[in-house]
Every structure is written in C-alpha cells, then in structure tokens.
Amino acid sequence: MxxxxxxxxxxxxxxxxxxxxxxxxxxxxxxxxxxxxxxxAVGDEREKRVVIDAIASMQGVESVVPILKPYKLASKExxxxxxxxxxxxxxxxxxxxxxxxxGPCAIESEKQIIETAIAxxxxxxxxxxxxxxxxxxxxxxxxxxxxxxxxxxxKARKASGLPLVTEVVNPESADIVAEYADILQIGTRNAQNFxxxxxxxxxxxxxxxxxxMSMTINELLMSAEYIMSEGNHSVILCERGIRTFETAxxxxxxxxxxxxxxxxxxLPVIADPSHATGNQKYVAAMSFAAIAAGADGLMIxxxxxxxHATSDGPQSLTPKDFSALMKKLRLFTDAAGREL
Amino acid sequence: MxxxxxxxxxxxxxxxxxxxxxxxxxxxxxxxxxxxxxxxAVGDEREKRVVIDAIASMQGVESVVPILKPYKLASKExxxxxxxxxxxxxxxxxxxxxxxxxGPCAIESEKQIIETAIAxxxxxxxxxxxxxxxxxxxxxxxxxxxxxxxxxxxKARKASGLPLVTEVVNPESADIVAEYADILQIGTRNAQNFxxxxxxxxxxxxxxxxxxMSMTINELLMSAEYIMSEGNHSVILCERGIRTFETAxxxxxxxxxxxxxxxxxxLPVIADPSHATGNQKYVAAMSFAAIAAGADGLMIxxxxxxxHATSDGPQSLTPKDFSALMKKLRLFTDAAGREL
Amino acid sequence: MxxxxxxxxxxxxxxxxxxxxxxxxxxxxxxxxxxxxxxxAVGDEREKRVVIDAIASMQGVESVVPILKPYKLASKExxxxxxxxxxxxxxxxxxxxxxxxxGPCAIESEKQIIETAIAxxxxxxxxxxxxxxxxxxxxxxxxxxxxxxxxxxxKARKASGLPLVTEVVNPESADIVAEYADILQIGTRNAQNFxxxxxxxxxxxxxxxxxxMSMTINELLMSAEYIMSEGNHSVILCERGIRTFETAxxxxxxxxxxxxxxxxxxLPVIADPSHATGNQKYVAAMSFAAIAAGADGLMIxxxxxxxHATSDGPQSLTPKDFSALMKKLRLFTDAAGREL
Amino acid sequence: MxxxxxxxxxxxxxxxxxxxxxxxxxxxxxxxxxxxxxxxAVGDEREKRVVIDAIASMQGVESVVPILKPYKLASKExxxxxxxxxxxxxxxxxxxxxxxxxGPCAIESEKQIIETAIAxxxxxxxxxxxxxxxxxxxxxxxxxxxxxxxxxxxKARKASGLPLVTEVVNPESADIVAEYADILQIGTRNAQNFxxxxxxxxxxxxxxxxxxMSMTINELLMSAEYIMSEGNHSVILCERGIRTFETAxxxxxxxxxxxxxxxxxxLPVIADPSHATGNQKYVAAMSFAAIAAGADGLMIxxxxxxxHATSDGPQSLTPKDFSALMKKLRLFTDAAGREL
Lengths: 340, 340, 340, 340
Hints:
- The structure is a homotetramer.
- Chain A is an alpha/beta fold.
- Chain A has helices at 11-23, 49-56, 110-123, 147-160, 171-180, 194-201, 217-229, 257-264, 273-277, 283-292, 319-335, and strands at 2-5, 27-32, 37-42, 61-65, 85-88, 91-93, 99-103, 127-129, 164-168, 183-186, 207-210, 235-239, 269-271, 297-301.
- Chain A has an 8-stranded parallel β-barrel with strand order 7-8-9-10-11-12-13-14, surrounded by 7 helices.
- In chain A, helix 3 packs parallel to helix 4.
- The radius of gyration of chain A is 23 Å and the shape is elongated.
- The two termini of chain A are 44 Å apart.
- The model of chain A has no long low-confidence stretch (mean pLDDT 92).
- Chains in contact: A-B, A-C, A-D, B-C, B-D, C-D.
- Chains A and B meet through helix 2, helix 6 and helix 7 of A and helix 2, helix 6 and helix 7 of B.
C-alpha cells in the first residue's frame, strides 16, 4: 500500500507511521517528494483491510492507496484460465457456447410454467428460469408460490428437459431451493446479503450472482469471493443494470462491465437485458449487444401472456418474440466466434 | 391511475384497455387529447401493483402513471400526527428531544465497549451503538464478535445506563439479538432484504431502518411498510448517504431526504453522518446540518482509539472530539427549538 | 397534462385550478378519485412549459404530469422515416452503411495527423476526427493548436480523402471551424451550452451532438431541438458514456440509449467507446456491442504513438489495433444486416 | 506520482518506464512488492497532466496514481487564510457575515423586479439575484429579457440599494453583463464551458461559480482555477445540487461538499437550496442546514407571484415566506457563531 503524508506533516507523525507499518509486518520505503512524503509499504494487505483504515486514521496521513486487488479466489492472478462451470452432464457455462436462460419472472401456475418451458426449449433456450420466492419492493405484491412453485418448476424440467435456475432469498430456505434447482440465483437486492452468500457458498450447486443495483465491479467480485471462500467455486456473474439518473430505462445496463470483468476474473459473465431495461422493446437489441461485448450467456424473461403476468409484464417477451430473438441472436454468436 | 395511450393507437386497442380496466374493478374516464387519448382509472391501485404492469404491457399503451403512493401504514395520509417511538420508560424518539446514538462501529473487547459507553454517556449521548454482527464487503475482514459481543454490549448497558442499538443481519439470529438490543438496526445492505424485514416486523422491538445506498425515498418507505405490515409500527428511519459519482466523501448524505420524509411519513427520521461521509473531519458539520434540516436524532461513531479500530477507524471520533461536538450541537438543537 | 390534487384539497383550490386551466386555453376534465381528484387538461402544452410550473405552484396541487414529449422536430411523431444526413456527395450517416470516424484526440503536428489519416483510411474509416480546439478540465493542460490545427486537418483531408469532424467550443470561433470541417462536433461539456447550440443551428454544416455526461436522453433530444429549431436539421447524436458511481471505466457507456433513441427520434445515433471507457482495452468490445445495439456509426480514437499523445493516450488505439478492430467489426455489421 | 506495474511485467517494460520518467524530469524510486513493483516518481506533475496519461499508456503499467492536487491557485496549500471577496465598499463574502442573495429566477417586468428587490431588502437580503439571460432546457421556453432585463435590474438596484448578481451565458455578452452586474454568475450548465470561464477570468468583477450537475468537487475547483489562472481571484463557489438517482427532489443538495471545500480551498462557498430541491417546501430546511454545515451564504429564489412566474415557479418563495425564513435563519447563524 502507498501512504500519502500531508504537506507539512510533522517529523514525529512520519515516524509514528513508519513504526506502525513495521509493527504490522510491512517493509516501509520512504519517497521524499517536492511538497510531501510518500511511504510505500510492502506486504500483502489483502487479508488485513483493517490495516488500511487504521493507517488512514493516523495523524499526518492524507490518504492511503491500496495496491493489491481485495479479491483472490475470483481473480485472474490466482487462476489464469477461464472457468467453465458445469451445470449438468451436457451443459456448462463459460465455454465456447453461449447459454440462454429464459422463462417467466414468477411461477404462476402449472400450465404457465410448463407451456413456457416447452416454448423456450423449442426456441433454443438452454435453461428455464422462474421465481418461486420473489423479493418484491411492496409487501402487498405477490411474493411467489414458494415450495409449491419449486414443485411446478420440477415438473417443467421433466416436461422440457431444461435444467432450472431459480432464486434463493433466505439462508433458511436455501436448502429446499437447492433440492430443486440446478443453479441457485442470488438477486440484485441480496448481492451484499453476506449471510446468504456464505450459505450458498456451503452448498454444492452453481450460483448465479447478480450485480447489485449500486454495486461496483470490485464489490461484485468481493461478493463472489464470499461464496468462493466458503468452498463453492462455481459462480456465474450477471450484469443486470445499475442505478443511474437516467429514467428512460429501469436501470442502465453496464455492458462495459463485461470486458472489465473478463480482464479481472476467470468466472463466466452473463447479462440480463430484461431487468436492466424493464421494457420488452429493448431486450433484443441489448441481448445482441451483450453477446458482442463478450457475454457468456443471457437471462431473458418470457411469459406466455405478459398482460396477465403477476410481475414484470412490461419487460417480458412472448414466446413468439423470444423465438425471433433467438434466430437473430445466432448471427451475433457467429460473429463473436461462438456457438449458441 | 392514468393510462396514456400511444398517438395513433387503434380504436380496438383503446376498447381492450377499457374492458381490462373495468374487469379489474376500476371506473374508466376517457379524455380525448389533441394527439392522443388519456384514460383515468378510478379505484385503489395500491394493493394491486401488478395491475399497473399488466396495463402497461397492453397494445397501444404508452405509459401508466400511478396516482396513489404505494405505501399506506407509513404514510401521513393514514396517520397525520408524528409517531413518537418509545424505547424505554424514559426515552423515546420522534418527540421534541433530539436523540444521539453513539459508539464504535464494532465491539472489540469488554474494555473498549465499556469505556466508550461511559464516555459517550458523559458527553450526553442517549443510546449506545455497537455492532456484534458485522456485514463486511470482504470475507477476509473481521465479521464481529457475534453473541459474545452482545453479552459485552449488555455489560456496557449496565455500566452506563444507556439503552442499546445493534445490527441484525439474518432472520436466524434476529431472536437472539432481540434478547439483548433495545433497538434492532437494519443496515444499508439489508434494507431490501425482505425476509429480514418481515422477521423484525414480527418482533416486539423498535427497528432502526437504514436507507439502502441506492434506494429512493419511496423505496425506503416501502421497506418500512414491510416491517409495519407484519405488525411492528415502531420504525425509525435513518438517512446514511447515497451512492453518487462524487468520491470526496464515501457516500453523499442526502439531507433533503429529511424534509421530504417529514412531508410523507409520520415516522421519526435520524441521520448517520459517520457512514455517510466516511471521514471524521466532516462529522460535526454534517451533524449540525442534519439537525438544522429537521432530523430527530443522530447516529455517530465514537472509538477510544480510532487508529487501532477493527473497522471504520477513519470515520470515528475520539471521545474528546465527540464531547466537543455535543457541546456545539446544543446550539443547533436550541436554534431548531428542540432539546438535546 | 394531468394535474393531481392533494388528498383533502379545498373546493376553492380546485376551482382556482380549473379557472387557471381555462384561462390558459386548456379544456379541463375532472376525475373524482377515491382519495383525491385528478384533472386532465387537454391542449398542446409543449410550447408553454411554463404552464406546467405555474400550475404546480398552485395551492392544493400535488403534482403535474406532462403527457406530450417536449421535443417536436427531433421526434418520430413529426417525421416517421429515418433521417439520412448527407456529409459529402458520397457519404451519409443514418443509412444502411455503418460509418466509422477515427483519429487522434488532439492534432499535435502535421506528421501525426497525416500519418493517422492515411492509416485509418487504409483500415476502412470513413471520416477523420481530430481536435484543434480542446476543452480540458485543467487550464494547465494543452488547449489545442486552434486555427493552425484546422489547417493541418485540411492537409490531412487532402492527403487521405477523408472528410473531417472536429469540435467547436465557442460561438465566436464556430465560423472559422465551419470553414474547415465537414461535421461540427459539440462536446459533452457543451451539450447544454445553448448559445453554442443556437450558433451551430444557424450554420449550414452537419452537427455531431455528444450527450452530456449527466444528460438524460430526453435532454439530449431537447439539445438537438435547439439546433433544429434554428433551421439546421442535420444532427447526428452520439452516446459517449454517462457519469455513474462505477469507476472501473471513465464513464458508463449507456448502450440502451441507442434503442431508446431509435424509438423516439428519426436522427442517426453513433457511439464513442473511447471516451466512454477511457481505456483502449475495452474499445473493441464496446464497438461491437454498439453496432449490435443498433448504432449507425462509431467514433474511435487512434494515435500513432499513444505513449506520447498530448491527451487521452490511455484510450487511444494504435493504427495496427484499429485495423484489427475494423476487420472484426465487419462480422458484426454483417450480423446486423448493414454494410461497413 | 505513483506508477503501479502489472504483476509479471517484463524487465524491459520496467526499464522503459524508468527511462521515460527520467526523460520527463522526474526522479524514480522503485519499490519491489510481493506481487508487483511500484515506482514513485518525484516532481511536480501538476502542470503536465499529460504525463500521467502518457505513462498510463505504456506497456506493463497497470495504473498511475497522482499525488498532487491538480489545482494550485484555488488550494489552501498555496493560500492558507480564507479569502474574503469584496463586492461593494460595504459588502463582502467569505467573512463572518452570512450573505443572502434573493430574487426571481428570471426578470419579467419592471414592476416584478422592483417589488421583489424592495421586499427581499426589507426581509434582510444582501444582494438581488435575477436572470436576464436564461439558459433553458427547451428552445421553446422563455429565454430572458436580455439587455432590457439588465436595465431593469439596474433600476431595481437603485430602488433597493442592493447590489446585483446575474448570469453570464456567453463570452460575447459577458462585457455587457459586467457593465451592470456586481457579481457575474456562471450557471451549472456552463460550469465547464471553459471559453466562458476564461472570459470572466479576464473581467474585473467577482464571479459566482455554480457547481455543474455532475461535477466532482475536484472538477469544480479546476473550473475555479480556470478563472483564477486568467487573473481574477474573486471567485465564490456555489453548491446547487448534483444529479443522482433520487427523484423526490430535482437534484440532491450535496451539503458535505461544504466542509470538504472548506478543507481544500480558501474561496467562499454558498448554497442554492432553491435549484437543488426544486420545491419551495424544502427551501427553508435546506437553508438552515447549509448554514449549519458552514456555508458562507445562500442564494434563494423569491417571486411575488410564483403561480405566474415565467420559470421555476414551484421552487420560488413568496416575499412573505422569505421573510419568515430570514427570521428563523438568524437563529442558525447565531448557533454557527456568525452574523446575518
């Protein structure tokens, strides 16, 4: 880490910083600048973040600049080759194939979920998505069918052959969800629910980790690190839009996060254009753009009857629109040198 | 709700919207505009938010504008007079007295928490804050002393006479925290952890709900509504800074949220200048400003030795600085016509 | 416009609003709701925005919701077919061909600009970009070669055959820039410099209007409207990143703005991945993504020697990298059904 | 500046960086870290920002961290004592007196501006504000009375005795505005209109520089530096709200900018709660908060008839409300140990 001293810091202040650095096990290097001194402290500050705060609190210190990235297991410095996360015997994410997860926001009925499963399968989707436990902004909104919904999902898997991705909202119900799901999804509002991250880190199922609405890329990788540090290295990251001042779309899909993440981590990265834009009119364009930016997959909302959906109707595609999107998507996966 | 039709929407599309509105139990009023039609739908859309989404998904509809606020129990329309939340026999929040909660970010040792408790009590604080369960961005950071920390908190309460506010991070450990705490704190990263909100809504302790880093004021009130709709109406709101592009402070303390909230809700509102600014240099100025803006209280980090704190040292005041702040604060509570 | 009255607004207050609406030439429609009244006012509020503010200031009014979009000339409601902006006899923007503008951030020397012009021409670029007048955050940074730079640009046009796009920073120097440039660029910091917009609106050259760093899509269209309302309808919009909390990239490229703009306006839309990301590592991925999202063109920084550039070196591609990007770009323009 | 090399950077890459640093006149210090090397370069990088970009563009370099603040004349390192800006013989800003500027957003008529001037004077305001040149988002909105408005302002000054602050929107009309105004205001949309900043830097009148809507505090000081580097050191900074995701207020008043600025610069800082909140209901609370946070003054919109204002009616106070605000404000200036 680099410690920038204040211009005019007292000699005694500098000495105390040097003593503290040595006491903490670092080797200090003083650089005498034109207006202030800078102290380099050599050592691995990653596991002792508190050190940075402690030194920043000292008299005469203006700021402390960390040099190492705070994540390890998620970083390319620790594992250079891309991770390919195995979902089933025949399906993995992070390889050359682009993976599409499609389905309704919420499971509403047996008919709805099975019809959708078959329709998205026919259109070429690789996984079925659908929420049984729904985190909703309002307590008066539909909160999901819960375990009954999981059972319907299982039926839809049987009917369509598609593996399942569904959300976990609570450490308590994580085990039951894990019995049914092929991928456990952590939603945007729980992306820093560390108790939940630790819980899924102890389960043996791949985890789809959505970026929090106001989370930096760095923090997303720290949340992945939480899961990985508990032993579960099967983490798939998902860019789903960040909160900005723009209101024309529900959130702002940050597609540059894809190449940035590709440079920092070996984990696969997918995009969710449905939640990001909140409007089915923009889903196709942003799906193509995500693939062109290097995404390993997509998560897309499809509902047989968006006008009667219990949640997120405006952003859901009909099966017909989804099928048209998949056809055009192939042109872009080809351009990107990947299969669909 | 108001439904804005697209310019040039087909007659059939308008009729379908009208039919749908009636089917949902609303009374439609059509206004023929110069370029497009607008339909007013009279009825209480609050408990059926899905209706808005459903209609927004219909052909020929450009947008749907809700008229009613989505919260009820938290709103001033339902309860006009200010709520005064009773903490102990002699202490309540939301009355004419400004309440100050002070203490360390994390409990680190018996000595640390008891010393701090006595010092902040002497300086005039009304509650002791201190985290036993710590949500930290990094899995490698200190995660709190957990139940052992709660026991130390209880000792500090005994030693100082100050009631306690401490964080709940998980529905599973909420009951044990509630055994010790006088106020249950929901942290910024859990402000939309709806399972946790429902859990504390079923407990009989006042809840301090911190605004999420990227939460609108509307969403904060919806999270309060979650707690209240489970039966617990003792909710105190806390503005603690929102995430913006500015990096000179850790977050941007949104003090205008205070008069906005005062106009919308009967619940008390406090501010946390320590987490908002992330820098002890700015805590006093923002404490005074929060009171001038109308806050009912403050939450301030105090640590006997910030340079050796296990978390958030740079934003912690020493007991001496805190004591000086409290003296000056009295001038501002006087100006605001309140006691301290 | 729709006027939402406060719950419990007095009868007199409602009557005054109705009188005011009629006085302003609108036809009012009252809808009696369950908790409050809503008044629809029929008429074209677009040219009298002040009306909305005036009514919002009245007693008993909670909010006013405008129905019409505030722009006209830029809107698809006024002109449905896509505009194709003619640059030279053989080049236009907004048709089926994707147009690439490439070159250095700033013109530094005759050698630099001519070499770059020839190199980007060979790689397939359609226009040469290069700044003679440079708006820089610091007064101590290089401010551009000014008219001398324009003359070098003209030489580079002659040497390469590429038309020129260059920035205008001031109404005073706009005429001289217009003598040399084929397209006048309005930079992000001047996107709401209305005096400058009016000035280029009176010139006879196409204008490339960059989105301001914190401008909504709506405001971008209003700035286009400023230019168009002065008579110049040859406006090309450019998404170049918005300011958000994320710091991994210099700005956040808002690619969903492209399909949103395509739905609202007939004007062409291009993207600038160099300024948006601020890092040459991410330029190729975001170029491909912009085309997949539907952009009509790209603006890319190329410098023969980024390490010695006077500005924006870290985001500049070498001619070799640019050439590789163009080759791969063709795969994506093909996928999008467009020529390059 | 500190140069962080990539983990595994080649020896040759390091040598090239060292050579470049020396060539640029800096003295390099290499610190060999556990995973990567860090190079400290001693010298004044402030006037050669391009150096940082150039080195960041080199092979093997991961990032470059500047150590010095990019501003000089505005910084406390160059001038430690607070600047008191002289407006007239009897009025200055930045001393112990809190200064209030009040008046309408736009000048509309002789009657309006003179009545307002007299009313705000009676209530205790120190300056009259009023716009003759109005930068408006829509070309169809009222653009101000221009020179005719300036003449009316002058009459209002004569009638009330209050000095004038009014906006400059264009280098061309700056001289004429300077003939009438006592303070030249640079609006939020022109805060990085560098040509305009340089122009007012060459005039002999104090400048009120508003923070741009998406400007960092650092950038605001760089814009002040533009004005100061041309010779005009009479700059007053104004916090007027930044653009965030929150929509309950028009912008988010960033009051922590006040103590941050007070720590960085000797220039006075005032706040504009009217434009920040966009709602007269919140102006008083935010005025008190700004003073408590340490502001040297306020700019407040007052209109004799907000319902008939040509702009910004919803945020304007009536003279009666303003007078009530001023009375209460005195309690807070007293608490802050200042006069009003």
